[in-house]
Amino acid sequence: MVECGLDVGRIAFHLRMVDRFVGSARVQNLGHRLDRVYFFIAAGIYLQARLVSPRIPEKGDFDLQAFHREEGRKYLVAYAILSWVTVAANAALGEVNGILQWSVQNFAIVPMAAATSVTAIFIKQAWIQRLALTIQIGGWILYFAFFQSALSE
Length: 153
Fold this sequence. Notes:
single chain; mainly alpha
């Protein structure tokens, strides 16, 4: 059985990519100032993809549980940092550029960031990982259902 932390990282990565591509048209209309912020967040997302992707040997078995035990804290810390950067960017840039929905999106993102941060600290506690995964899934459902304006336009 694969530890839940690995699933949190992979699921979150794919959902972040969907969100960034869906919302990219709105960011492009805001000008060059946001280009740098958007670039660094996108670079962080790709770094996250590298961290959650183990090198699979061509032959033999691969132990995903061992990978999670050895590398889990790294990719969960990276995801937590990326989540908190997103919260700050939403709060600061949303208000400045009149995109009030960005600040409101933090209602879904803050609990997800907090859950990931706790999971990174308590990496060996499976019940915390399961709870964090539940919070992540609920947060993404809430986010895409109510806070992703590009999907409702």
